[in-house]
Amino acid sequence: MRRGGGMAELESLETAAEHERILREIESTDTACIGPTLRSVYDGEEHGRFMEKLEARIRNHDREIEKMCNFHYQGFVDSITELLKVRGEAQKLKNQVTDTNRKLQSEGKELVIAMEELKQCRLQQRNISATVDNLTLCLPVLEMYSKLREQMKSKRHYPALKTLEHLEHVYLPRVSHYRFCKIMVDNIPKLREEIKDVSMSDLKDFLESIRKHSDKIGETAMKQAQQQRNLDNIVSQHPRIGGGKKYKKDVCASSDLEVKNSSPMSEQDSGILDVEDEDDDEEMTGAQDLVDFSPVYRCLHIYSVLGARETFENYYRKQRRKQARLVLQPPSNMHETLDGYRKYFNQIVGFFVVEDHILHTTQGLVNRAYIDELWEMALSKTIAALRTHSSYCSDPNLALDLKNLIVLFADTLQGYGFPVNQLFDMLLEIRDQYSEILLKKWSGVFRNILDSDNYSPIPVANEELYMKIVGQFPFQDTELEKQPFPKKFPFSEFVPKVYNQIKEFIYACLKFSEDLHLSSTEIDDMIRKSTNLLLTRMLSNCLQNVIKRRNTGLTELVQIIINTTHLEKSCKFLEEFITNITNVHPDTVHTSKLYGTTTFKDARHAAEEEIYTNLNQKIDQFLQLADYDWMAVEPGSKASDYLVDLIAFLRSTFAVFTHLPGKVAQTACMSACKHLSTSLTQLLLEAEVRQLTLGALQQFNLDVEECEQFARSGPVPGFQGDTLQLAFIDLRQLLDLFIQWDWSTYLADYGQPTCKYLRVNPTTALTLLEKMKDTSRKNNVFAQFRKNERDKQKLIDAVAKQLRSLINSHHL
């Protein structure tokens, strides 16, 4: 119990100590933090005792407060007494102040009203002054903005851009705190874009306009070049040397003038000036003067100011490249008329006139490299187009006009400083095409001349006609001049016509060579080569066709030989003619020679061969009329009718050969006689003639004698002795052998140079003998019973046997 009592006492002491501690904390701790302290009281189980402890502590503090109040109470009472006295005095003072205030308010009421009015006036004055000052700052801004809108409305975009720049950097910063200024500032980029868009629209209109009017610009430029060239030709007969430079100088002068008159402030917006009345001007203006370039200049300056010059340059060059491709695309039917080519060239010239002017009047919008690139493209496409379309040309006049147009085109662009050597090189190609066209045309001309010719010597009835022919063709014949009128030239009408057409051809070739900047030697060489082609190809073919034509008779062939002989002699005059018009002596090293002599010789040889062939064909036709009775016992009294007609034909034919060269007539006569001899021999030996009598052979001999008589009569002069008779020598010896029946001599002398029947071939003799042998056997059924017949048959068999022996020995 004692121990238990001790424990309780100990716990009571601890609780009392804890409560004391809590009370001290409550006294010393801020009221806001007293919560945790009180929680510790309620967490324990002795809060009742704590409350008792708290009540005891409150009572202690009340006793201490009471003691303190009792100590100071007398001073408090004295202070209250004095305060009551002061309250009375304060009330009096308050009444006096209230009365004074009332009097003051009453007296100063009018003053307050006047002061209030003064205050309002001063405020208004200050506001008015501030407003005037602000308006002074704002009015220039508004005026500049109004000016800007007016300039944009009137499409003065470059001045508008300058105004906008001044407004942005000078005026708006002064009034930047105003709301309307902020609106303006926000609107400035839009205005710039609007100016850019409008100026770009003007540029597009300009580009479209010059695209449509390029042909008019080019036409004017080419007319100027033509006038300049005509002027140069008038001033001097020498090839113009400085014409291109002078023309370029004029162009540059016009360009400088254009720069002065086309300032960025210009208000002219149309790309092309009124060009309809230009033709009425006595003095043609420059091609570039037809164009108002101010839209380009304005747009360039605007984009330069806006810092977008590179964008503008790229756009301009891109669009012009596109236009260049369109301009360089030729129409599909350009080759049909010269106007098609002219319009094509005008557009190209107009395009490059504009670009050249832009190059010289702007700094950097286009440069020389860009122009050269465009020109190279244009040159290649133009040359390709001309090659294609000129190949369709078949009219020499159109080709010549095209050449003149290309030369003018090249001279025009050369005047603006563009290299045109490739165009002149291409003209040399077109010159070859032109030569081909001329050759085709003159082939038709020659064909018509040859077809319409009567192939008869030209008759002249008086001196006037004679001199006219001599004036057309270089012919001199003293004998003919001495003859009285009427008389005849040896050649037919196609000789002077062909000669003059060759000269016309040379003139046509010369026309194409003009203004090609070729030397006299080159022109001479070109003319000679073309003339050689005309002679060797066209004229030669035409002559050959006439010669080979079926209906060409011997008279025509003879006349062709005579005509070609005279044309051959005229070749030297053609040489002189070319020399006179080119001033190049034919002895020059590089000068080509005319092949006319060869051409006419070949034609003459062909005509001669055709004469020989025709004569032989005529002979064959007569021989087809031969009707021999190979079984005749006795010959007739005269030559066969067909042969008499044949000889008469040959006599009349060779009579026409009087104007032929001697060798030609002799060769024709010899050829005819040889062919007649050969044909008669074949007729005698042909397989269809199986039997042959001596009487038929004697009739055949009469025909051969008629031929020999013809040969001896000298149908063509110039044969020596019996030369012409030699054509029948083979047939003569064969007939003599059989008619004279001289086999002993033939067989004995065979193979010797002095043999009487040297030209008789054993095979031929055997063939003919076999025909007579069969006839002897079948001539009479009783022939074998007659001694003479039997002896003759034995002789024939013996001769045949010996002939076979000769033939076999000859083959071995």
Task: Give an overview of the whole structure.
It is a single chain. This protein has a two-stranded antiparallel ribbon with strand order 1-2. It is elongated. The chain is 74% helix and 0% strand. It has helices spanning 2-28, 34-43, 47-153, 157-171, 179-212, 214-235, 243-261, 294-305, 309-327, 338-361, 368-390, 396-415, 421-452, 463-472, 478-482, 494-513, 520-548, 554-569, 571-582, 596-623, 641-656, 662-685, 694-712, 729-740, 743-749, 762-778, 787-811; strands at residues 459-460, 487-488. Helix 8 runs antiparallel to helix 9 (309-327) and helix 12 runs antiparallel to helix 13. It has 812 residues and is mainly alpha-helical. The chain starts with a helix and ends with a helix. It contains 27 helices and two strands. Mean pLDDT is 80; it is low at 238-271, 274-283 and 780-785. Component of the exocyst complex involved in the docking of exocytic vesicles with fusion sites on the plasma membrane. Pfam families: EXOC6_Sec15_N (PF20651), Sec15_C (PF04091). One of its GO terms (cellular component) is exocyst.
Structural class, from secondary structure content? mainly alpha
Number of helices: 27
Task: Sketch the topology as an H/E string, one letter per element.
Answer: HHHHHHHHHHHHHEHHEHHHHHHHHHHHH
Approximate shape:
elongated
Mean pLDDT: 80
Strand line-up across the major sheet:
1-2
CA-to-CA gap between the ends?
A: 190 Å
How much of the sequence lies in strands comes to under 5%
Profile the largest sheet.
2 strands, antiparallel
Keywords: Coiled coil, Exocytosis, Transport
Protein name: Exocyst complex component
InterPro entries: EXOC6/Sec15 (IPR007225), EXOC6/Sec15_C (IPR046361), EXOC6/Sec15_C_dom1 (IPR042045), EXOC6_Sec15_N (IPR048359), EXOC6PINT-1/Sec15/Tip20_C_dom2 (IPR042044)
Function: Component of the exocyst complex involved in the docking of exocytic vesicles with fusion sites on the plasma membrane.
